[in-house]
Amino acid sequence: MPTDLTNQYPAAGVAVDVRRLIRLADRLLTECGVADHTVSMLLVDDREMTRLNNHYRGKNKPTNVLSFPFAEGADESLASIPVKELGDIVISVDTALRESIEFGQTLFERLTWLTIHGMLHLLGHDHERSAADEQAMLVKEQELLDKVKNHRRTTMTKLAINVDHVATIRQARGIADPDPVAAAAICEMAGASGIVIHLREDRRHIQDRDLQLLRQTIKTKLNLEMGANKDIITVALDLKPDLVTLVPEKREELTTEGGLDVLAQKKKIAKVIEKMARESIPVSIFADPDPAQLAAANEIGATFVELHTGKYCDAKNESERNHEFMLLSSAAEEAARMGLRVCAGHGLNYYNTAPIAELDTVEELSIGHAIIARAVFVGLDRAVRDMLAIIRQADMTI
User: Which member of 306, 346, 363, 364 is catalytic?
Assistant: First the structure.
């Protein structure tokens, strides 16, 4: 990731949204035209900030922010720096908290201004050089502040709902209900932007009859998940769904486990994509957040990648979850840079979806089990609307 943030602030009871601060710094790098550079951020208390001021500036007191450019005259020398690193920004959360109270701001609003201020120092701005420099920096600070405050996606994150689990319940009794076709209609009326189904080789849940009825009745988008199996490929070419998502498939698995290994079967998958392209069916690859797999998907002509969020969702602790989130965030940015359209899914629920929905490059989330499970208690319409509310709230976050 372009931003590396270390939180050394020890005070209990003061929560700093580190993930959101990282996204803010990454966006500032883009807005300042240095998205290919990295910046390091360090959050400290007043005691540590006083120590740094003593050591580097001969001042025995804390300040709100310090900047340490990787190279002096950063504006003029960026192109010649072998390592594309802007430098370090150090922020005292103690001072930021006092200032937020003084100025009637939230803590994050104050941290936003301090991050902008520190970033501009790294880029060569200096309000202490002259009155003109001070005014120029103030103007630039306000410009960046307006941009990050008003930033929104050009389109809101979409929600596609997998109705396989409705069919699983039906197949358990071998009767006609509940009907995944009816479930899909309810999901669409509640605001879903697409319906996902997985036609497995063993027909354990979705049946051929479901495919035909869903193709005829869906008003939004039909995404057919499938293995690269000859018979299923034939079905897909005949059905002509709006999107095909290629996934790994094992008979013994309860649900799809892990992303598709594109590197190990590039020729085979490339042929499937070519066949679908002849029928104007775009293809998405269900992939782990691995740059090599993403590059392979792009090379063989995939239109989308759906990032596998399973490891993030199954994380045993916050540290592990943050690690997996950073891998997903980085992979989403990398895929977008390649020109791939980015979706994400697997294991997402009402507690872990928001951070993924906040990623700017992710345009659609595919969620099934959590919504169908919640529908048992609150009804399907309400379950869909509750998930959409989480996604829309995430869209409004910097």
Answer: 346
- Residues facing residue 160 across a β-bridge: 194, 366
- CATH number for the domain spanning 112: value is 3.40.390.30
Backbone angles phi, psi at 195, to 5 degrees: -120, 135
pLDDT tens digits, 12-59: 667 777 877 888 888 898 888 888 888 999 999 999 999 999 998 899
Residue 38's domain comprises 3-149
Whole-number pLDDT of residue 250: 63
Instruction: Note whether 126 and 198 are same-domain residues.
Output: no
| Residue 365, SS3 per DSSP | strand
Is 70:86 a contact under the CB 8 Å cutoff? yes
Q: Which of these, 161, 158, 156, lies nearest to 370 by C-alpha position?
A: 161
How many other CB atoms are there within 10 angstroms of residue 367's CB atom? 25
CB atoms within 10 A of CB 226: 21
Instruction: Tell me which of 90, 121, 149 is where a domain ends.
Output: 149
User: 105, 126, 149 — which closes off a domain?
Assistant: 149
Centroid of chain to Cα 117: 26
Contacts of 271-276 with CB under 8 Å at 24 or more apart are 272/228, 272/233, 272/246, 273/300, 273/301, 273/302, 274/301, 275/233, 275/237, 276/236, 276/237, 276/244
Q: Looking at residue 170, which CATH number applies to its domain?
A: 3.20.20.70
3-class SS of residue 326: helix
- Which residues, 6 or more positions from 51, have their beta carbon under 8 angstroms from its beta carbon? none
Residue 12 and residue 58 in one domain: yes
Which of the following is catalytic: 85, 225, 249, 306? Answer: 225
Cis check: omega of the bond before 178, within 30 degrees of 0: yes
3-state SS, residue 287: strand
Q: Where are the beta strands (DSSP E) in the chain?
A: 3-7, 38-44, 65-69, 85-92, 158-162, 194-198, 222-226, 243-246, 283-287, 304-308, 341-345, 362-367
Strands of the sheet containing 85-92, edge to edge, are 3-7, 38-44, 85-92, 65-69
At 106-118, the pLDDT tens digits run 788 899 999 999 9
Q: Choosing from 37, 125, 198, 205, which is the catalytic residue?
A: 198
The number of domains in the chain is 2
Q: In the annotation, is 198 catalytic?
A: yes
